[in-house]
Amino acid sequence: MTQLAPQPSKSGLDRRLLHRARGASVFIGVCAGLGIVRTACVVAGAWLTASLIAGAFAGGRGLDSLAPQLMALAGVLAARALLASVQEAAAHRASAGVKSGLRRQALEQLMRLPSGKRHTGETAALLVRGIDALDDYFARYLPQLVLAVVVPVGVLVVMLVAYPPAALIVLVTLPLIPLFGVLIGLYTRTRAERQWESTSHLAHHFADLVAGLPTLKAFGRASKQVGAIEVTTGAYRRRSMSLLRVAFCSALVLELAASLSVAVVAVTVGVDLVSPHNSGGGMSGEAGLQTALLVLILAPEAYLPLRNAGAHYHASAEGLAAAERVFAILAETPEDAEDRQAAPAPGEPSNPNAAAITAARVMRTPLGRAPTIMFRRTVFAYPGRQPLPELSLTVPAGQTTVLTARSGAGKSTLMAALVGFRRPVSGSIAFDDTELDDLDLAAVRRSIAWLPQRPVLVDGTVAENVRLAVPDGASDPAVAKAIAAAHAPAATRTVAADGSGLSAGEAARVGLARFLLRVDLLDPPVLLLDEPTAHLDGDTEQAVLDSFAPYRDQRTVLIASHRAAVRAIADREVDW
Amino acid sequence: MGRPMAQLRNTIALRLGLGATLGALAQLSALALLAVSGYLISRAWEQPPILYLMVAITSVRLFGISRGVLRYLERLVSHDAAFRGLERLRIAVWRKLVRLAPAGVPVWRSGDLQARLIDDVDGVGDRWLRGALPLASAVIVSVCATALQATLLPAAGVILGACLLAAALVGPALATWSSRYAVRATASARGDLTEGVRACLHGREELVAAGTDAKALERVLEGDDRLRRAHARIAWTAGLGEAAGLLALAVAVTGALGAGIPAVAAGTLDGVLLAVIALVPLAAFEPVLALPAAAQQTAVAKACGRRLLEITQAEEPRPDPVEPMEFEPNPLGGPPFIEIKRLSVTWPGAETPALHGFDLTVQPGERVAVMGPSGSGKSTLAAALMGFLPYEGSLRFGGVELAEYDGDDIRRTVGLCSQDAHVFDTTLAENLRLARPGAADDDLARALRWAGLRDWLEALPEGLETRLGEHGRAVSGGERGRIALARCLLADREVLVLDEPDAHLDAATAERVLRTAAAALEGKTTIVITHRPLPEGVVDRVVHLRAPVPTPRRDAPDNRLLGVAPPG
């Protein structure tokens, strides 16, 4: 029910959004320009209509003498229609540009941030669907907001010249609308925020139940949930309605101000026409009627953009909420092991000069050939969890070490630490007696080929996926060789990012081909493989291991695996 | 489904009808305000005694107030109706899903589809509020305005009616067409982009370590470019709908004056009413100009409704028998005697059976392992034993075909423990009590011990009250499987099917857990489904299963959450 109960937007967001989003300011300029032309159309249309009525009724003129004015009116009204069309198109284009910019910024930032507790599916939905929802803001709300500033000013100026009392009425009532809007907004703010939380809570609750329905059914608990759903949603409706009764008041004020002031203008003008001597004259004859009608037609136009903006404001809430979350991502600072200056390891005394000292240290150059890797009393910990058991391990240079460990012991953590994605809370990691912290991380990463448990897949062909092995391009024969060695599917097969098109075993072998290509092209001295054969059957496993054999030569290889066939190729087997 | 849906429609329709009426009255107030104001000014110009104007002045003031108040009431009434409607729709959908789960709907295939289901329900609410109500008030206002105009001057009435009709047809049609085109043009680009972003985020560390993150990002952002180009193409069509309505308004206003001015000159129309004739179209068009937006909303919501209909009209994979047998497969108590002969099971929508010609007899209290490679139909067997799927051949409990029993009765005797069982976003205790409501904390702790989670439980600072699931503490694959096992042990079913109980566990942990579980299940019938050999002594005997010869279709319903995945 996202749209029924819009999330209250945080103040200042709009400004940030317009500031950050490239192209937004140009768009506002375009909107303002179109708004000025539109105001001219509105005024001209009202003036022509008024003069036609006055001419026919008060002036007693026929269609012959009024025909040019009638044609002009048709032209003005048609121009106004076309203008709306141009505005809409401009808005959609601008919106698309802003969205793309925001998406790129957020993605680039996300690649720098630790994955941590972020839910990838949710984040992907935020970056695509969430940002797309900004259409309502850019293409609908924002243009109306600009019009709400431009049109009333133009209309007021004309009214002031034509008939000051009417302008005064509009001038007094118009500010009431935003004023009451703000007051009611403040009054309902905390409740609205709580309501928004309970909206997402309700949606999440239902989603959780649907996801767990097979489980509920297996335990015979599914039908019993009906009562629970009834109670939750019923309470939710009553709370929502009590909030909406107040929240809709701002719309009530808006409508009342708009229609009542039209009524007051009509009555004032009417009374003046009946007794022109009261107002100091000027309101009689054909000109008097024309002025009166002009003012009457213009009065509602002053309120119209504000009413539209109000209507679109709620629809834009979803996009704004998404924008808010995107900005939160953009505001985050990278603080994992990748940014060592920024984050001293917990447990170390936090020396204010530490950053300067680390930065001043000369980074050692890439790893020498086949280094020895040493973990000395290394302990990893995740927040809110028991630390993983302490590890002391030597991976000898130029040999293949297979690491077997019980489930959850942290084999993947250990490999991620070697490429600088996890920091131990105590103990150390060293390559050939040089602490990992003292080495240039980029160079370390260049000297390592790492095959994670679930290699990433992007949309494209198998070959394109294998090419993700190295930053620079790879020749076709090199790719073909890697694919053959890994027994991966044909280079031209297409792969989807969600893995559809390949079986789990085939996907694993695409990852392996990528790994082998990297080894071929960059000749890294260190190879890390995390469960490389988990999804393979016995025969394929053996074939893959056979083609992997020459790559192990003269390199420090660390493989995490339980499989007997993998353990068979080990120079050394370590149980953690 | 028919009756509850009809009831739902009736009361909600009444409330929505009231909302539509109030909305139309609010719009008519606006129209009356403008019309009477025009009359007032024209009449005032003739300078009659002011008493003659009092009725008009009072009406203008009344209409000035009534529009806002009526609109406020309309909003309250219609939102309340929508909330109530959605409440019942949710429950109706849930009731149906309960009967379909898990084999009948592919909705559990991915989290995305679940989210869509939630959105679809909300989308139907939007259809009422933003689609149907504006349409209803636009129709009422148009008819009234045309009637009024025709009474004053028939020619003007005809013009207004024609213009309103044209605007009401063309504008929404263009809007619907352009939004449909937009959906077609962007849906696949958007889906690809989502998956690409997800993959990039998921594989961030691999890509950064390999130095290929920028390269992968560019690939993904190609999807964004496609999306952007599609949006640019849509931009112009989106504006057309808007323009159509305003053009019709231009014709209506010009036409009214074009007809009115000669009529005044000819004396067939009182000059006082010329202003009314010119102003009525302005107010009459207001609701009609809102129709393109309403049509777009309806188009979106229709898709939501269609998808919900697919669910509510889906065939139940295994309807419960009309007159189920009383479930008493073992009158002496304890596990029933299970006899399976030439059992063939086909997933709904699949052409070939996933399990074919399977024979097995299980004595009460026996522990049997069913072993076979993936694709041999092991999990299909589990789903059939749970009464989730129809079958051919014979599957008897205590001599009675399973098809004769009510599904819920079957599941009171047969339990299924799958590795991918759902962990709900609530406390550990609540997650376990699902299996046995009212179980004491000691029972819960014991079940966790049996499942090999003693150390894990002791390490939890909040113990059984620890929140699990998406908004709580994340559990690993191995922990999730063992929580599911603990839940099944707590449920204390006479027959327990364990689907790959060692999937996410290392050999030592797996053996320990299997042995404790086996001890805890003493006297119950246990069927362990596995693709690897089990440790010595865990089961009494092993039955081998081979894959049926033809390869099943890929679009057979997949059910990862329950772990009853069809082969493929």
Helix content of chain B: 55-70%
Report the CATH topology name of the largest domain in chain B. ABC transporter transmembrane region fold
The main sheet of chain B comes to: 5 strands, parallel
CATH topology of the largest domain in chain A: ABC transporter transmembrane region fold
GO molecular function (chain B): ABC-type transporter activity; ATP binding; ATP hydrolysis activity; ATPase-coupled lipid transmembrane transporter activity
Transmembrane segments (chain B): 50-70, 132-152, 158-177, 234-257, 263-285
Membrane topology (chain B): Multi-pass membrane protein
InterPro entries (chain B): AAA+_ATPase, ABC1_TM_dom, ABC1_TM_sf, ABC_CydC/D, ABC_transporter-like_ATP-bd, P-loop_NTPase, Type_1_exporter
What does this entry show, briefly?
The complex is a heterodimer of chains A (576) and B (568). With 576 residues, chain A is an alpha/beta fold.
Account of the protein in words:
The complex is a heterodimer of chains A (576) and B (568). Chain A is of the alpha/beta class and 576 residues long. Chain A folds into 2 domains: 13-331, Up-down Bundle (ABC transporter transmembrane region fold), CATH 1.20.1560.10; 354-575, Rossmann fold. Helices cover 62% and strands 8% of the residues of chain A. In chain A, strands 6-9-10-3-11 form a 5-stranded parallel β-sheet. In chain A, strands 2-1-4-5 form a 4-stranded antiparallel β-sheet, with no helix packed on it. In chain A, strand 9, helix 18 and strand 10 form a beta-alpha-beta unit. Chain A is elongated and about 110 Å long. Mean pLDDT of chain A is 82; it is low at 1-11 and 336-363. By secondary structure, chain B is α/β, with parallel strands linked by helices. Chain B has 2 domains: 2-312, ABC transporter type 1, transmembrane domain (ABC transporter transmembrane region fold), CATH 1.20.1560.10; 338-544, 3-Layer(aba) Sandwich (Rossmann fold), CATH 3.40.50. Chain B contains 15 helices and 9 strands. Chain B has helices at 2-45, 54-100, 111-152, 154-202, 204-210, 213-266, 274-289, 291-312, 378-385, 407-413, 428-433, 441-450, 454-459, 477-491, 507-520; strands spanning 338-345, 355-362, 367-371, 392-397, 400-401, 414-418, 495-499, 525-530, 541-544. In chain B, 55% of the residues are buried.
